[in-house]
Amino acid sequence: MIRNDTPSTSPPSEIAVKPLGALSTSSRGSSSNEGLYIPIAPAFLLANAPVPVDFYRLNAEQRLELFLKADSEVDSTVRRQVLEGTLRYSLYCAVADIPSVLKYQEEAIQSILQHAFLDNRAKARAVYNFTMNLAKDTHDHPRPLNVYRIGEQISLTLDWMLSDEKKILPLLLGMSRKEYSNAAHAVNVGHLGMALALELHGGKNVTDTLKTLAPGFFLHDVGKGFVRVDILNKPGPLLELEWVEMKKHPQYGNWFLEREKLLTPEARHIVLDHHERADGQGYPHAVPGSKI
């Protein structure tokens, strides 16, 4: 059973609930996330292991109440009941706890993909949400460790996806979020890129090809992490000089990845050239399609 020092029937007062997609709109380094909560897929709950932070659920009055206290454990029976029951996709954690939750999810993702009783749609949702959180963390804080983490996640996703490509890839593509955010955009482009690569390069070496290229799909905008925050978050149209700065993000991304010796040359080309156009009107180098 759940070992929890605080009864789940005692909801915290006046907790604000913030949709997952809205998380990506906050400024880097902002303290505006205090008191805000986002949904977490319960598929990440590990049996017989302590949870790293407090997890909440919505009660009948649509208020958050404590469900799992930090350091409490869930046995395998309770975990299965949660995954198969009405709580699916409806746990919440504090935005401030996201770094701890990401580490916890990284330990859980492999077991999620191997669980026989979880259907592929539930796995796809867990993979999508986790990859989007990783993408946000990587774009907000471009550093080698984050690139490595997202690369490991992509590798796991590819192995799972290729085990039943015709069923799983459409599920991943169907998870595309409607709102715009850098993280959602990165993951949507990543999955679309994998679909295109499968179409163009399908064959016996497709796994190696995808593992070579896919990190570039997901990290194509990593250079935005080096663009001034006031430009990235500007609500209105950019001024000419601001556009000049924004258009440097492919070069910033390639510079960062080359400096840290990250990704393959092919993947770095995706980062550098993703805004080039066949008619030569793209950026940063305005090269025509035959030279991209």
Describe this structure in words.
This protein has 292 residues and is an alpha+beta fold. The chain has two domains: 16-97, no CATH class; 115-291, Hypothetical protein af1432 (Orthogonal Bundle). 48% of the residues lie in helices and 7% in strands. The protein is built from eleven helices and five strands; from the N terminus they run E-E-E-E-H-E-H-H-H-H-H-H-H-H-H-H. It has a five-stranded mixed beta sheet with strand order 1-2-5-3-4, with no helix packed on it. It is globular. Mean pLDDT is 80; it is low at 1-34.
Mean pLDDT: 80
Task: Give the total of beta strands.
Answer: 5
Strand content: 5-15%
- Unreliable segments of 5+ consecutive residues: 1-34
Number of domains: 2
Sheet bearing the most strands, described?
A: 5 strands, mixed
Strand order of the largest sheet: 1-2-5-3-4
By oligomeric state, this entry counts as single chain
Q: N- to C-terminal separation? A: 58 Å
CATH class term of the largest domain: Mainly Alpha
Q: How large is the radius of gyration?
A: 20 Å
- The CATH architecture of the largest domain is Orthogonal Bundle
Helix content: 40-55%
- CATH-defined superfamily of the largest domain: Hypothetical protein af1432
Looking at the structure, what is the overall shape? globular
CATH topology of the largest domain: Hypothetical protein af1432
Count of DSSP-assigned helices: 11
Order of helices and strands: EEEEHEHHHHHHHHHH
Q: How would you classify the helix and strand content by structural class?
A: alpha+beta
